[in-house]
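As the work plan foresaw, our protein records have gained a structure token line. A representative record is set out beneath this paragraph:
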Amino acid sequence: MAEAPHISACPACVAGASAVDMAETGDMGGESAPARIMLSVPTVHCGACISAIERRLEREPGVRSARVNLTLKRVAVDAEDFITPEYLVQVLQGIGYEAHELDSGAPALMRTDRRGRDLLMRLGVAGFAMMNVMLLSVAVWSGAADATRDMFHWISAAIALPAITFSAQPFFANAWGALRARRLNMDVPISLAIILAAGLSVYETSQGGEHAYFDAALSLTFFLLAGRYLDHRTRSVARSAAEELAALEVPRALRENGDVVAVADLQPGDVIRVLPGARVPVDGTIVSGDSEIDRSLLTGESLPAAAGPGTVLSAGEVNLTGPLLVRVEAAGQDTSLRRMADLVAMAETSRNRYTSLADRAARIYAPAVHILAFLAFAGWLLGTGDVRLALNIAVAVLIITCPCALGLAVPAVTSAASGRLFKSGMLIKSATALERLAEVDTVVFDKTGTLTAGVPEPDGLAQHSRETLSVALALAASSAHPLARSLAAAIAQLGVEPATLEAVREVPGHGVEGTWNGQPVRLGRAAWLSVAETGGTATYLQIGDAPAVAFGFIDALRDGAEQVVKALRDAGKDVILLSGDTTTAVADIARRVGIEAWEAGMLPADKAARIAVLAKAGRKVLMVGDGLNDTAALAAAHVSMSPASALEAARVVSDIVLLGASLEPIGEALEVAVAATRRIKENFSIAVLYNMIAVPIALAGLATPLAAALAMSASSITVSLNSLRLVRR
């Protein structure tokens, strides 16, 4: 088959190995490596949580670094040996965060979405109770008085209080944790507003008062839970690509003597067998045997590479044609595949530190609400001496400023935009993906499997005789090589029948040979047939002593590739092609799709490093890739995207998945992202305008808690309707 460049270095992380080693050892120059402690922090939900946890842990003597992964709700801590997980759990509990130890050596399995079901159940209870209490309130508003009014109020209390106690637990728990740690978050004013509205309603009912606000407390709970559930849904699809990479590791290996052992039990110097079709379980060097190695997952090379004694292999590569004896150089935690997983985990953690617009607004909003409500209470108490009136006005201020609109501003837009893009063939997985996508100024594409279909197709078969095609079909059908399979399928589609061959055998690393009409026939690499290469991707057929003929291949472009590159360039975006394939192949694809900036022969760490350089220069990069060799770059990019045909690890680390075969929707995604960010800012403007009008009214004592709840609901509905404008094309 066509020659592929020989790679003598680890294809996973040669360029990035030193960076990973420094991260693992803390760059302490000879000191022992720190212990890695993994903790689950299920209550973390915003950028402020990330900062609070990391700052607190890094203040502890013996803790070298702490990094929070918001998507997985866990924190990775590098610490000295005397630091125990139990101690760190106590530290986090001391600042109001629930924490549990995780096993850092074993990837966590995907757990049932208990939190989503829990939020949905609480939302349903709050909504059902709210509707029933509102029905009772209609009777009171219609003129029910005295004993009848009091009865309806007590029935409302019997419905509302248990429902609030159950449904509002997420807000109460987070608020209590923050208060114990002597800090504020968005859940503190929310909880205070709900509790005061319910408590004041009970007090008014017990005193025979005309007004009770149970429906207001339930409305608050319902709308806030709706926002919290929408936010959870956008996050729940994402999970760790590092776990998916680890899942590609082979758990067992075959020793030279035939014994099956766990890969973790192998030591450097051991010799193992790797059978045809098997994934290489370790990093090692071939001792004996010839074969071809599929490195596409690790390097992006579209063609297999010839392999023989002395060839260096990496964990995760696939042996295609011949049995091999491999001397182990590294196994388990020390393999290139695990190093790549470390690179991805580090990049994921960095990107998860992105602070959404809602989080940034919340930092200012939460303390302002408390101050405003306290000033209202103190002012009216000093001015009138009426505690009941001052408390009513303070509650009205808390309710009217309750961040329902703020809580819905981002989730409502994200859900509307996600629905529109889903109809166009895109799945949005990250809560902040649209905000980040709107900031993109540079788009980086992988080649094989992304801009191209990833399967070379024969070109110019019509120029060969049917006899030549018949022999080529018979030989190609006997090989497992990707070019041979593609050639056989293309010739068969022309209606050509395979020739009758004898003594057909595959020569690992070279091609296929046999006998036809007493003549030797061969199909394979140029060097094996001792002919000069024609250039480009090709395989060669020789019949007897006749000159060899070449079958050329082209890698077909993915549907929409040329259109999306043109659309991106017309929109003012810089477009770059990064690939692990050969210079000739990459240059050809770049020319065909219209990309001027391209780089070939890039290893996974090279791609991630190139993304990092662009980021340091202030560029906001969208990375589009599909392979294992792209996962580190996808995780390191400002925002990432992969086609549905991509490897699972690439789809997992990506913020957006293209469900269809075409790349053309990428342009629409960028347009929708800009529109979504505009809608989010409009929603914030609506919330600010609403507060500018409603807050003075509440401070003046002209709004009861019930009127405040109705105004709050109106602002939430307005925000939702504004978000739904995104659904229209």
Remarks:
- Residues 114-236+354-415+675-727 form one domain.
- Confidence is low (pLDDT under 50) at residues 1-33, 103-112, 236-244, 347-355.
- The chain has five domains: 17-106, 114-236+354-415+675-727, 250-334, 427-453+557-674, 454-556.
- The two ends are 49 Å apart (CA to CA).
